[in-house]
């Protein structure tokens, strides 16, 4: 991958205020991309913007565009603002999302609906808003952050796993649909990455879980993960696994040893007591 593979390309990242999204923003800033940073919290986006400006590339074009991924009606105007301000979107990274920590029978149906609104329908809605411009140019790249949980079920994450499986299915199907139009689709499949995902996860009543699982705390550094992801996107990989732990082996073990993966998931997928 060249140093400035994404130079001058318009890269729109949702969920850019922390974690993988923030790390991706910094990595793309180093490559002199023209960035659009979206999440709900403007103050955190401004912090990430400053971190991007402080990279060795520095001083690139960065648009801070607060966006609630569940506000589908706001998306056409957001796409118009991006297009008129810095240009048509070359790469959309659907990275916004939320996780879960609760048993099935302890989880309100409203929590399941919230997980799908954020992790599935929000990604679909923004993709549908951006896609017409890509089709008109016969060019573009759409990515989504799924999870190993989109391939392997894990306890206390029934809603999260269901949502991430849905994301994998939708974007795999979209890839087949738009391939003939010159548009690439990539699914990003992280394992345990050292972010606030478990701390911000919701419980069965919709409250914040509020603590970091030990497997998350010992996970891959998000900046290292971002480098792997950007390298995969530059190569046009359809699926980009990223992580360093035992959970990554489950991606291939499930096919041949499903019982072993069940026992593995039951053991390492449980939140700390």
From TrEMBL:
On whether Oxidoreductase is a keyword of this UniProt record, the answer is yes
Q: Which GO terms describe its molecular function?
A: oxidoreductase activity
Specify the signal sequence span: none
Q: Which domain of life does the UniProt lineage start with?
A: Bacteria
**The keyword Oxidoreductase belongs to this UniProt entry's keyword annotation:** yes
Ranges for domain Ketoreductase: 9-196
The protein's UniProt keywords, in alphabetical order, are: Oxidoreductase
Annotated Gene Ontology cellular components are: membrane
Task: Name the family.
Answer: Belongs to the short-chain dehydrogenases/reductases (SDR) family.
Matching entries from NCBIfam families are given as: PRK06181.1 (NF004825)
Q: What is this protein called?
A: SDR family oxidoreductase
